[in-house]
Amino acid sequence: MTEPLLEVSDLTLTLPSKADTDNDILTRLSFTLPGRGITALIGGSGSGKSVTAQALLGMLPRGGSIASGSIRFKGDDILKLPPRQLQRYRGSRVGYVFQDTSGTFDPLLRIGRHFAELLAIHTPLPRGEAKKRALQLLRDMQLPDPERVYDAYPHELSGGMRQRVQLALALAAEPELLIADEPTTALDMPVQADILRLIRQWSVRTEGTVLFITHDLGVVAEIADEVLVMRRGTLVEAGPADQVLHRPAHPYTRQLVEDFASFSAPGSKPLPDEPPVVEARGLTKTYRAGRRWLQRATPVAAVREASFTIRRGEMVGLIGESGSGKSTLSRLLLQLEQPDRGTIQWPPAQGNGSARPSVQWVHQDPFASFDPRWRVSRIIGEGLDYRPRRNRAASSAAERIRAIARETGLSPELLDRYPHELSGGMRQRVALARALLLEPSLLILDEPFASLDMTLQRQMLGLIRSWNERTGMAVLFITHDLRAAAHLCHRVMVMYRGELVEQLPASGLSGSDHPYTKRMLASIPGSRRWAVQRCEPEPITLNIFHGKE
């Protein structure tokens, strides 16, 4: 039997609590990673997935300590390695890909400088050879114009391009193990599919091992050979991917599978005609981008001649790739920006041409929209300070805040906490409570649940649907997740390069004839298996990997 590449034995990791007692965040955790293939680590928010990944690098959370157990990489206990050996282990033997690329890059350094510093530490390559390797890696990641990417700053690249560069950096020193911590969560479907395919190809061609952390069972079905399931810091199930996904043994795993399967259920039925909440006609917005020294800026049409109507009680999905113009369109509706051409018509009752407070917005990253100095109760009630007195309810603001907190699943004790003391799911509930408190006629959700696990996503979508059915609130749901859009919405609008190329009932999404929509549907993780997964890889040349024995 082949020796495992990595072996975790009886690992318990503790953090001090406010009550001066130790709080176990990993408890007697044991598993092995084989010498090749892809193992998925799944579980809900707070299950300990990311803490486990960090522990495999010898990186413990602040105040954390190992109470028992070991982590052995080819027989060496990494928890006992001296600092210099641990540094070599992290770069040359194990590569790491983060969900958020902002923590990977120094914004003051060009991409080439990132490669140069990493390769100088972990390889004996001279500067010229290091640049050749970096450029080849960028080609392997199928980045257009690798020379331009090499000379670019991180902020000059799209999110998908930054994620490909981060993957190239993680593979630059030819590691034996790649740890990928939710690397595709915030990416649109086609880019996500590309990243997954590149990771699988690397594993097949180099016989490398991947630990892929995710909450998306579609990704697991697409890429994983083995699956580990965590809950509350413990391992509850492990086995081959097909067995865990189709014949789960543990009740928690069964719940995860059921939550994911619920997204395949039919969406909302079409509504009878209701009065419009908003009508847009011929919206166009152009930016000027790419201006350099002695060069003229290039006009970029973010939104082109967009026309649509959203009716009372209707939930409309707006789907498209990154850069398709979805967020720009939402900013036009919120009157945060003005269109170059076109009109936005609101019902007369909303008055004075203002979108506030009849329209509310929930961001993808709720933490960035909170004042970190405010407690949750003040954050939720912030909008009441700007609402006309004649529209205020007779009950006190505090009572209204407590009531909306209950409806959105926030316990009373959370109202006295600060944003940094909440989980990602709780923060998103706070953002939703703040928006719903003002009883909007239109709620705009801009990629609000991309980082949440399937159980939390289902809870949040169920909450929005029940509020919609009870109050008649209209919803514009901006997302790259076609499953969620089809599950929640009555109707879907597809946006491509600034144009609304298709508008159709959510129930008819799978039967679309538009080539762009069909490409997005084909990119949904789990919808198909790549040839590279179970047999020979697709014929794409990855030169940088060929010489490794």
Question: How does this structure look, described?
Answer:
This protein has 549 residues and is of the alpha/beta class. It folds into 2 domains: 259 residues, P-loop containing nucleotide triphosphate hydrolases (Rossmann fold, 3-Layer(aba) Sandwich), CATH 3.40.50; 164 residues, 3-Layer(aba) Sandwich (Rossmann fold), CATH 3.40.50.300. The protein is built from 19 helices and 19 strands. The chain has a 6-stranded mixed beta sheet, with helices on both faces. The chain has a 6-stranded mixed beta sheet with strand order 15-16-17-13-18-19, with helices on both faces. β16, α15 and β17 form a beta-alpha-beta unit. α4 crosses α6 and α13 packs across α14. The two termini are 20 Å apart. The C terminus is likely disordered.
The unreliable regions are 528-549
Global geometry: globular
Whole-number radius of gyration?
25 Å
With strands numbered from the N-terminus, the spatial order across the biggest sheet is 6-7-8-3-9-10
Main location: membrane
GO biological process, one term: peptide transport
Membrane topology: Peripheral membrane protein
Family: Belongs to the ABC transporter superfamily.
Features:
549 residues; alpha/beta; Rossmann fold; six-stranded mixed sheet; 34% helix; disordered C terminus; membrane; ABC transporter-like protein
Blueprint of the fold:
Elements: E1 6-16, E2 22-33, E3 37-42, H1 49-56, E4 65-73, E5 76-77, H2 83-93, E6 94-97, H3 111-122, H4 127-140, H5 146-151, H6 159-171, E7 177-181, H7 189-206, E8 209-213, H8 217-223, E9 226-231, E10 234-240, H9 241-246, H10 251-261, E11 276-289, E12 298-311, E13 315-319, H11 326-333, E14 341-345, E15 359-362, H12 376-380, H13 397-407, H14 424-436, E16 442-446, H15 454-471, E17 474-479, H16 482-488, E18 491-496, E19 499-505, H17 515-522, H18 531-534, H19 543-546
Parallel strand pairs: 3-8, 3-9, 6-7, 7-8, 13-17, 13-18, 15-16, 16-17
Antiparallel strand pairs: 1-2, 1-4, 4-5, 9-10, 11-12, 11-14, 18-19
Helix pairs in contact: 3-4, 4-6, 6-7, 13-14
Membrane topology: Peripheral membrane protein
Subcellular location: Cell membrane
GO biological process, one term: peptide transport
